[in-house]
Amino acid sequence: MINTNQSSNESSAVYIHIPFCEHICYYCDFNKVFLEGQPVDEYVDLLIKEMELTAAKGPIAPVDTVFVGGGTPTTLNEAQIARLCTAIQEILPLKKEIEFSFEANPGDLSLSKLQAMQDHGVNRISMGVQSFNNELLKKIGRIHTVKDVYQSVENMRKIGFDNVSIDLIFSLPGQTEADFKDTLKQALDLDLPHYSAYSLIIEPKTIFYNLMQKGKLFLPGQDAEANMYDLLLNEMEKHGRKQYEISNFAKEGFQSKHNITYWSNEHYYGFGAGAHGYVGNTRYSNFGPIKKYMEPLQENKLPTFQQKELTLKEKMEEEMFLGLRKVDGVNKSHFKQKFGQDLDATFAHAIQKTTAKGWLENNEENVALTRSGRFLGNNVFQEFL
């Protein structure tokens, strides 16, 4: 049984997983299934039951943020969205000023669906755009077009959503630096408050991984990838979107509070097939296959697949490799308060090695990546493990 004990002054976040997709993208390794023929209504019912069982087991700390991700949450219809969001509000102890995000695909965001979200508390949309080049979108297995992106943004503005983020991916197969520059221009011309941009990572069990194994995937290369990231940093700064994490940029006040919970190594609940959570000293994950996730819930049992009690050493390491993703880095006094240990002494060797290479800045208050360190984040993080 997961230990849900938290101190009374703590808050928490909630992640909810919707595993259904109308199409599987070639780079995606998230827990997902084709929508057609799936028991979506029953899945929503049992997802609600999981929240009820968790809430009955022990008090859930007041919830600051809810993020409904996937898969593709906007494959749910209006009635399913309303049912899920109503249950979230009824079961979970949501704070008044909550950030309530829904992940979306361009083309799924009809006015009626957006209205259903807004009517039931959703106040932030995160949309997976990836590129503003229709040819590239086809190459990576996306089924939307650039026209869908513009229509979706127009619909969001009509309904009144002002907290909107879009995701981009760079270093795509066949992508040039000029193409990424054009994608950035079109994205920034939309004048949205938040942007996320990630370099493509080839994950096992994806179509791209299989193509790479056969020598049929042609990527831009490390130099081009670094140039695209440099362009990203410069363009975001030029357009007033301040970088607050390696891959995330926002106008002041529009940073993703939910993702900051992850990077700050704070507690969050995971609901849904394959969802992960971190509560008390325990990291846990649910069964991923939908049938295996649903079976325990049909018998009023939680669908926990595995859980791990973290040691102090593991918690401190996680604090560093997650916290260093933030531009502000890890605060030394907060680290001492949280773990009862001195950050500089605990990680003296790693700090000395990475500062000597110019990847890390170490001052009286914080330890943080330098600008050049942000290009080599994974190299830095490994030194703290």
UniProtKB/TrEMBL annotation:
It holds the Pfam family Radical_SAM. InterPro entries: Coproporphyrinogen-III_oxidase, Elp3/MiaA/NifB-like_rSAM, HemN_C, HemW-like, rSAM, rSAM_horseshoe, rSAM_sf. SMART domains: Elp3. Its main location: cytoplasm. Keywords: 4Fe-4S, Chaperone, Cytoplasm, Heme, Iron, Iron-sulfur, Metal-binding, S-adenosyl-L-methionine. Gene3D superfamilies: tm_1862 like domain (3.80.30.20). It is found in: Cytoplasm. The keyword rRNA-binding does not apply. Residues 6-242 form the Radical SAM core domain. Probably acts as a heme chaperone, transferring heme to an unknown acceptor. Binds one molecule of heme per monomer, possibly covalently. Binds 1 [4Fe-4S] cluster. The cluster is coordinated with 3 cysteines and an exchangeable S-adenosyl-L-methionine. Belongs to the anaerobic coproporphyrinogen-III oxidase family. HemW subfamily. PANTHER family: COPROPORPHYRINIGEN III OXIDASE (PTHR13932), RADICAL S-ADENOSYL METHIONINE DOMAIN-CONTAINING PROTEIN 1, MITOCHONDRIAL (PTHR13932:SF5). This is Heme chaperone HemW. The gene is hemW.
